[in-house]
Serine aminopeptidase S33 domain-containing protein
Amino acid sequence: MDPVTTTYDADVLGGEFVSRTIPLADDGDGPDGTTATLVRCGTPTRERAVLFVHGFSDYFFQAQHARNVVAGGLDFYALDLRRYGRSLRPGQVPALVRDVAEYDEEILAALAIIRSEGHRQVVLVGHSTGGLVVTLFAHHHPRSIHAVVLNSPWYDINDTPLRRSLSGPLAAVASWRDPDAVISRLSRTYTASIHASTGGEWDFDLAWKPLEGFPVRASWLSAIRRAQRRVAEGLDLRVPVLMATSTRSGGAGGTAITPAQVRTTDTVLDVRHMWAVAGKLGSDVTLRTVPNGMHDLALSPSPAREDYEHALLDWIDRRL
């Protein structure tokens, strides 16, 4: 399969955004074939680009963030992974994956397209689950990228110590019995706090990013916990890494989220879990905390989002 086969069409974001479908090998999960989608902001004019990978129950819609990155001197691409957002086909189970390494296929295909469009250096940016995905991708494919930026990467379950320790084994057993079994559901607190219909600043497709999130299925959670365990064991990433997180978490360790925390903290993950892993990723890791940052730092209220974007652009400029 040649990943560089399709042309760009107008994207759902409109304006300068275009997208193209990336055909993938059939993974046996759902009808209508398996695809990913590469989104580009404007016409590429630089030799340096970023490739953004979204999180769970998510897709790329952060248009203003993309424009700010382009204004900062980088070309911008984003990838909707298989069975997410633009890549989700009728009849498919959203977000279904048996191993996060499956995503290597579309990331490699996207990188091939980006290089074919004249880019000599590519920075891989991952948010939340996407941060976990790109961390392991960089470990498996060290020569394919030049740097990694982690935006609130998901390295552990945000729950009590007992539930954290049991979640992996229980998910593995449940996956063996019924891989598609729904074993948990997300809180709508974070997504409701950012969507325009519920008082937030951002508009996005609620079919692709529902307020209540996608159901958490046994096989998916088992794959995530295996990947998180591999990161916790320690890696040796050979490229520079920037890890950016909020300074605080709301609802850490399974505690209740207060109204004051909703728009000023990471209410999805425990930032302490990210900090604990930073020293295990490699020898060149920079940790940057963002005061009043939300889970997706690029969607945080001002001035936190500008703080994150400045940190990202400044770090890339200095390191590359």
